[in-house]
Model the fold of this input.
Amino acid sequence: MLIYFIVTNDLSYDQRMIRIATSLTQAGFTIKLVGRKLNNSIALLAQPFLQKRINCLFKKGKLFYAEYNIRIFFYLLFKKMDCICAIDLDTILPCYFISKIKKIPRVYDAHELFCEMKEIVSRPNIYKTWKRIEKYSVPKFVNGYTVSKPIAAEFYKMYKVKYSVIRNIALKNDILIPDKKEKYVLYQGAVNEGRSFETIIPAIKFVNAPLIVCGDGNFINEAKKLVAENNLKDKIIFKGYFPPDELQSYTLTAWIGINLLDNKGLNNYYSLANRFFDYMHAGVPQLCIDFPAYREINDKFEIAVLISDLTPENIARQINILLEDESLYKRLQQNCMRAREIFNWQNEEKKLISFYKNILPE
Done:
């Protein structure tokens, strides 16, 4: 059975989709992952699944989404497939129309409450456009899954669709925690609006360690301006995106991970970010926002310091505690190693494989 997965990002750095596509390939499906090509895209790495990147004239904004959706539609129109999966709302329309034309099952992989992202919900006209797309298309996707129970509940509340919960958890690999002679704070993932960089960056002035940022996104230019304004060019280092294998080495040697989000839009409030699990799997204690999905896991395994006060002063205070309180740090680190035995992709992928086998029986 051939399944197409459609995303709008660069395939080389998408750990989540690499995990999903690899697991389904190993389970006997044929997978083709389709994404976009950027000017700075590296060569595609060899994978056990098929890959295709689409080149667009426009790189962002309304014209990009319009062009990409049209290009995706015509690319898919002439391809044979047994199922198609839209990854988030920005690919849902071409996937819907292709599934109707080809009379094949369609799946919605809702990694986000897309319309509730800060960069959407804070812009009324953009919000209205995406909300119309969501209201039109999501009820037509009866098969779907998302990353947390609160997001699944919200989809049922809005559209009466019962989506499975398949969390975006790291693959459990054997690790040896290194001797960390140099302490640094790590943020990994998209540098987007709503990730609290407005308060994280000034907080680093009062922290006894540098911050390394591994990622890129729609807030990267603003973040770099904030670094310059706060005279922190020597203390905050932007590394850009790394392929997953290289990123893991940065994560493993970090002293503290950062996972803070603004409480603006339900998407952040109900989130369960992959970096939360990536830090856990590297045995790295983290400073994390006190939102429901994170609190639920932290109540079972204390792996993070949860905060709701996102002032620079409090962020700096809590980071410095993690840097200096050896007893607290070791307790969180040991709990990470226990939690990763329960929360890992090897357990989560079973639900993913079962989901697709139910839709596409042999």
